[in-house]
UniProtKB/TrEMBL annotation:
Residues of the Ketosynthase family 3 (KS3) domain: 26-449
Known EC number: 2.3.1.41
SUPFAM superfamilies, per database record: FabD/lysophospholipase-like, Probable ACP-binding domain of malonyl-CoA ACP transacylase, Thiolase-like
Tagged with keyword Ligase: no
The name this protein goes by in its record: Non-ribosomal peptide synthase (Yersiniabactin siderophore biosynthetic protein)
Organism (species): Escherichia coli
A Pfam family: Ketoacyl-synt_C
Ranges in a coiled coil: none
């Protein structure tokens, strides 16, 4: 579902040396994330599986469907009408609340803008960055098709000056696709809308790479969208044009007669390779180079392709990549499946690529055989296919290829056409991607795999990133339930639960109003599915977050258990490092050690306050360090009983080394007092105080209107509990061997040395408070 952004990285010098070794004489750019929505492919994994399986993701529309969307019967009955097209499911769905739009404003926007905005959000998450909080100067480079959205207002020039007219213009014109994403996601780099017809989205990626190399961006999102309405439209075939007479695209085949128009969108997240390695970003593949040119008038007409133009742009990209053409194992061609286009493209490639041995021929592909021509999104579709191919070491088949076009003379070329998925086992895999626009703007890009040597340099922080809970948030209840369903599905696919939790914490917005938390265990997927179906789930905690501040509460005695902290110690670096400091701070005061008392399942030391109290404080301080490392920060801290010592450390008033010895001394002295006990009673203070006075017990704590704690000698407390049972009042004996916050502690109020006097830091610190603290309730 998601990639991870790790928290540490190797040195800059070692990275420079490795990049120079594997990618000499070029300026590589890393692809660190992506998002896409193509026909029958709502996400990247489905897209890839459809490619490998050789699926043609088109639909034949029924007469009823075509009439329902408003097509005239005369058009449908025309013998040249082709009832085929592609449909993006849920293209009309948009989480307006998430992006701060009213329903009316969202409905006035072309779905191309809405879907691309969502895609940028998902791509940033996929790269490991929380949308709206990206720490780098990030550019947006995007393209879109002409708006055919029926919801847009028909405007004349005078209405553009009015609020409603201007809003409609900005919501539907191609000029605003990039800047809208930059505005809504708070991205501060260049925001450029790119229009070069069919090559637009690959040119957008080229410009993003150049922006990174020039230093004007530190990260970039680039891509494109193409979506026409109604989606169930089909087209009328006309001989000599680029559209196929039967709705199939057959690149390089003897029966190739054209393509068909598709719908889709995609984008990639990019960083300079060195920066990505330093940050520990997830690197999917590497863009070595790209080139852009124009045919000029070196062709038969404005809309025709040019051998000279295509040859020149491919040669330039190879030169900038500093690789030999014989190293390239795959080319994602423009591949429109038109007789003229195929012939010119193959001729240009043959002019660049030298002959090869039969077993080292370069494979050709075209995503248009799967989903038609995506116009402004065609380039990004081809790039994403190539990025996944070099990353995963597989080459998908070219569909509808049965008999090679004899005019292309492929058998005499260095190229081959795969008709089934092929393994690509070279350690260093290089591929080219072509996208050529009507009007003559050509783009070619060289993509490479990340070698094992560099991949190994991505830091392995498994021990520091494992989580015990999955935290999610969304802008609405329905969106949160869909997110829960998605995570349940990912967990059932054997996705690493800790990786998912880490990504959710670091790469997703957790401050959205509808929130969920669920512990990670074998039942997590079922618990999420149950909750998502609007049934109660015992493990799932959900609610509506308020825009208030964080309060951290540190509890007191009775909250400890044997082996407390052992699991967190193994899974959280911040927790382990802080707990080690606590162990060290009290090492001379406890035998056996606090570590032994906490982690040994056979130890009974935690039944003794001399170990229980420092264990509680140490655990709480370490948990606070863990949550800080995960990005949380308290505005207030409250302590209960011995937990007040932990709160004081977390607030910065005292250090671990100051507090832990004091807590050890406190626990030991309290243990030395006359035998006592404590009980939590689930009733109000007014009801209980007459009974407490009768048995001469002390009120230790009033935790709530129905939660009161009493302390006193064991014998009196036993009779008190028996009386409570007679009155059907619920209670629970606390797992302590002393009577905290009671008169039994009076003898030791002067026995604790003034270790904290003169050491407090910051406003609100009161050292004398802790000396009276043992009696105060």
């Amino acid at each position: 579902m998601d990639n991870l952004r790790f928290s540490s990285a190797p040195t800059a010098d070692s990275i420079d040396a490795s990049i120079a070794q594997h990618y000499p004489d070029c300026e590589p750019v890393a692809v660190i994330g992506y998002a896409c929505h193509f026909p029958e492919s709502p996400d990247g994994e489905t897209f890839w599986q459809n490619l490998l399986e050789g699926r043609e993701c088109s639909r034949r529309f029924t007469r009823e469907e075509l009439l329902a969307v408003g097509l005239d019967a005369a058009i449908i009955d025309d013998p040249h009408y082709v009832n085929i097209g592609t449909v993006l499911d849920n293209a009309d769905c948009f989480d307006a609340t998430l992006f701060g739009y009213s329903r009316q404003e969202a409905e006035s926007m072309d779905p191309q803008q809405r879907l691309f905005l969502q895609a940028v959000w998902h791509a940033l998450e996929h790269a490991g960055y929380a949308p709206g909080a990206v720490p780098h100067k990030t550019g947006v480079f995007a393209s879109s098709r002409m708006s055919t959205y029926p919801g847009r207002e028909a405007l004349n020039v005078t209405e553009v000056a009015q609020v409603k007219g201007l809003q409609s213009l900005m919501g539907n014109d191609k000029d605003y696709i990039a800047t809208r994403a930059a505005y809504k996601l708070n991205l501060h780099g260049p925001a450029l809308s790119v229009q070069t017809a069919c090559s637009s989205s690959l040119v957008a990626v080229h410009l993003a790479c150049e922006s990174l190399r020039a230093g004007e961006s530190d990260m970039a999102v680039a891509g494109g969208v193409a979506l026409s309405f109604p989606q169930q439209a089909g087209y009328r075939y006309q001989p000599g044009m680029i559209f196929s007479p039967d709705g199939h695209c057959r690149p390089f085949d003897a029966s190739a007669e054209g393509t068909w128009a598709g719908n889709g969108l995609g984008c990639v997240v990019l960083r300079r390779l060195k920066d990505a390695l330093l940050s520990g970003d997830p690197i999917i593949s590497v863009i070595l180079s790209s080139a852009v040119n124009n045919d000029g008038n070196r062709k038969v007409g404005y809309t025709a392709p040019s051998v000279a133009g295509q040859q020149a742009v491919i040669e330039e990209a190879l030169m900038l990549a500093a690789i030999d053409d014989r190293q390239v194992g795959y080319i994602e061609t423009h591949g429109t499946g038109t007789p003229l286009g195929d012939a010119i493209e193959i001729e240009a490639l043959r002019n660049v690529y030298a002959p090869r041995p039969q077993d080292r021929r370069c494979a050709l592909g075209s995503v248009k055989s799967n989903m038609g021509h995506l116009d402004t999104a065609a380039g990004i579709a081809g790039l994403l296919k190539t990025v996944l191919a070099v990353s995963r070491g597989q080459i998908p088949p070219l569909l509808n290829f049965h008999t090679p076009n004899p005019a292309l003379k492929l058998e005499e070329s260095p190229f081959t056409v795969p008709v089934s998925a092929q393994a690509w086992q070279d350690e260093m895999r290089y591929a080219g991607v072509s996208s050529f626009g009507i009007g003559g703007t050509n783009c070619h890009m060289i993509v490479a795999s990340l070698p094992d040597a560099l991949n190994a340099r991505l830091p392995n922080t498994d021990g520091g990133r494992k989580s015990t809970a999955l935290l999610l948030s969304a802008a609405s209840d329905s969106a949160l339930r869909r997110l829960a369903t998605d995570y349940a599905g990912a967990l059932r696919k054997n996705a690493d639960a800790s990786d998912l939790a880490f990504t959710a914490l670091h790469a997703r917005r957790l401050d959205l109003p509808f929130r969920l938390a669920v512990p990670l265990n074998r039942e997590t997927a079922d618990a999420l599915s149950t909750w998502a179906s609007e049934k109660s789930g015992a493990q799932v905690y959900s609610g509506h977050g308020a825009s208030g501040k964080q309060v951290w509460l540190f509890t007191g005695q009775g909250s400890h258990w044997r082996t407390m902290g052992q699991t967190m110690y193994q899974h959280s670096t911040a927790f382990a490092d802080t707990l080690d400091r606590c162990f060290s701070a009290c090492s001379e005061m406890l035998t056996p050690s606090l570590r032994e008392a906490m982690f040994n399942p056979d130890s009974a030391q935690l039944d003794n306050m001399a170990w229980a109290q420092p264990a509680i404080v140490a655990f709480e301080i370490a948990m606070a360090a863990h949550w800080r490392a995960e990005g949380l920060k308290p505005d207030f801290a409250i302590g209960h009983s011995v937990g007040e010592f932990a709160a004081a450390v977390v607030c910065g008033h005292y250090t671990i080394e100051q507090v832990m010895p004091l807590v050890c001394r406190r626990g030991a002295l309290m243990q030395q007092c006359a035998s006592g006990a404590m009980v939590a009673v689930f009733a109000d203070e007014d009801t209980l105080m007459p009974l407490a006075r009768q048995f001469e017990l002390d009120l230790a704590a009033n935790n709530g209107t129905q939660h009161t704690v009493f302390s006193g000698p064991e014998a009196r407390l036993a009779v008190f509990c028996a009386t409570l049972s007679q009155h059907d009042i619920n209670y629970r004996r606390l797992s302590v061997t002393g009577a905290a916050h009671s008169a039994l502690l009076e003898p030791i109020t002067r026995s604790v040395p003034g270790r904290l006097r003169g050491t407090a830091r910051g406003a609100g610190a009161n050292t004398d408070y802790f000396h009276a603290h043992r009696r105060r309730h």
